[in-house]
Amino acid sequence: MIAAATTDVIPFGPVALGFMGLYLLSMIGIGWLGMRARQENTLRDHFIGGQGVGFFVLLLTLFATQYSGNTILGFSGKAYRIGFAWLTCVHFMTAIVVTYLLFAPELFKLAKQHAFVTPTDYLQHRFNHRGLNLLATLIMVAALSNFFLAQLTAMGRAVEGLTTLPPETAFLWGVVVLAGIMLVYETMGGFRAVAWTDVIQGGVLALGFAVLLVLIFKEYGSMEETTRKLLATAPEKVLPPKALELKNWISYIFLLGVGAALYPQAIQRIYAAKSATTLRKSLAVMAFMPLGTALIAVLVGVTAAAHLAGELKGADSDAVLGVMLRHIQEQSVFGHAVVVLIFAAVLGAIMSTADSALLSISSMVTKDLYAGFIRPNAGQEALTRLGKRISTLFMISLAALAVWLNNSGTKLTLVELLEMKFDMLLQLAPAFMIAIHWKGMRAGPVFAGMLIGLAFALCFFWVPAQGEGFLTLLKNSGFHPGLYALLLNIGIGVTGSWIVNARSKTASRRDPS
Q1: CA end-to-end distance (rounded Å), the chain
Q2: Which of 67, 178, 226, 470 could bridge to 306 as Cys pair (CB 3.0-4.6 Å)?
């Protein structure tokens, strides 16, 4: 077992800090290039990048956006807590790509025909129902705010893991500095800056994952050795899941497989593809990405569970990667240099996901809420300026909230923050995945299903985990509440649409004129 002394930090020296500084400053330089490449001062140019991006950029921006701080820090922390059972993350990350294929091709065609900017543009085109537009936009903004808060939290914890500053101070500086850099390059270059920085961040992330796997095996031994040690010390982290755990495994596959495909930033990347062929090729490659990302995060987590057993508890276990990297740092100059690269990959993963979420939030608040309900006749330049101000407002507010939650002792794990938003995002599925194929879906029933499904999902936050009652039974069944809410949502939307269609046909027969 690694001695507790390995948790002492070896701080980055001038060369390492200089590399990290240049890496971060390059993001601002790319933001400036994105601003210079602007074709027009419109919402579509700022939030979608104009005419679209090619295969290489689309692939890496999808990759960098989908694999975030949750993947590197949250997934390894979860695997540290529960062991090999968290291999389910490989399945649900693959399921996301499968879900894309259910609706992305048709959605892309409509987006190109009608110049969609936000996900709500599709809903307006398909249903033309103001209540549905408002509800869906609020769900997406709330879910993304949660998601963005998780990324800010991951930023702070990443800096905590490799610094000599007191934890609260390190968290504060990590959030403030990295959030400020993101805000600068995104405000300058919009979608182009985000997508182009994703190319660099995605490349560093892929390289970082590969190097991390090699280093972990070199420093801690093979997976056979790790598995044997876990069998001796914590067999529950190796043995096959029990019935309740198996239900939870299946639940995660549906929850994240469907929910993550409905991320507003993911939908906007579908819009941003240059062609249907570009989109199809990018998704085909994305199907293999979980093997080189989520799987490695799990192997890191279970290796830590075997060799660092009992050192980290609760939300603190999300810092397990930092503890392992500190041990690698101690071994050699090469190990120290590689840790700098991996740390850059961690920051890149977090920032590439956070900047996409922030861009989507500002686009929806600007176009769908402000222009949709307050000033429908606002000009494009005025709306674009407003979008940048909204980005600034959300960044400051959520960064302050992340610091306050950390200092107050209210520390949720990154996976807990991850789950909260998916219960909400799932309620968008009938409107996007069923209605895009079945023309019989009607606005009223879809709106009612979404509203009731959302209310049903949210009520579980107040249902006690212990006690009697139907809702408590559902909460402890092993399946996430959002899945039950989705079934209710689909039932209302589909059944209600059938009834409305039947009444319309009856009325048409009675009055053929």
Answers
A1: 83
A2: 226
Closest alpha carbon to 4 in 310, 274, 300: 310
d(CA 507, CA 108): 35
- Contacts for 510 with CB less than 8 Å, ≥ 6 apart: none
Asked if residue 267 lies in contact with residue 119, where contact means CB atoms within 8 angstroms, the answer is yes
Phi, psi angles (nearest 5°) of residue 125 = -65, -40
| 3-class secondary-structure state, position 40 | coil
The tokens for 492 are 């209302």
C-alpha dihedral sign at 502, 503, 504, 508: positive
Tokens at residue 417, please?
């923050």
**CA pair distance 43, 362, nearest whole angstrom:** 11
Q: What's the confidence (pLDDT) of residue 485? A: 94
CB neighbours of 201 closer than 8 A, spacing ≥ 6? 64, 348, 349, 351, 352
Residue with tokens 């649900």: 92
pLDDT of residue 416: 58
Mapped onto helix, strand or coil, the DSSP state of residue 190 is helix
| Cβ neighbours of 92 (radius 10 Å) | 23
Burial of 513 (0-12, 13-18, 19+ CB in 10 A): exposed
Surface-to-core class of residue 240, CB atoms within 10 Å of its CB (0-12 exposed, 13-18 middle, 19+ buried): exposed
Specify the pLDDT at position 38: 82
List, for residues 341-368, the tens digit of each pLDDT value.
777 777 777 887 888 888 999 999 999 9
Q: Which two tokens stand for residue 249?
A: 């495994």
3-state secondary structure of 506: helix
d(CA 374, CA 377): 9
- The vertex-220 CA angle with 216 and 224, nearest 5°, equals 100
Q: Convert 309-345 into a string of H (helix), E (strand) and C (coil).
A: CCCCCHHHHHHHHHHHHHHHHHHCHHHHHHHHHHHHH
**Three-state secondary-structure class, residue 273:** strand
In this structure, is the dihedral angle defined by the CA atoms of residues 275, 277, 279 and 285, taken in order, positive or negative? negative
The number of angstroms, rounded, from the C-alpha of 70 to the middle of its chain's C-alpha atoms is 8
Amino acid at 424: M
Helix (H), strand (E) at residue 161: helix 130-161
- All residue ranges of the chain with pLDDT < 50 are 1-9
What pLDDT is stored for residue 7 in this prediction? 39
Looking at the chain, the number of H-run helices and the number of E-run strands are: 22, 0
419 CB contacts (<8 Å, ≥6 apart)?
A: 255, 480
Which DSSP symbol is given to 433? I
Strand-pairing partners, residue 273, are: 53
CA 404/CA 54 separation, integer angstroms: 41
Report the pLDDT value the prediction gives residue 200, as an integer from 0 to 100: 82
Cβ–Cβ under 8 Å, residues 108 and 417 = no
387-398 pLDDT, tens digit each: 999 999 999 998
What is d(CA 435, CA 148) in angstroms, rounded to the nearest whole number?
29
> 322: which strand partners?
none
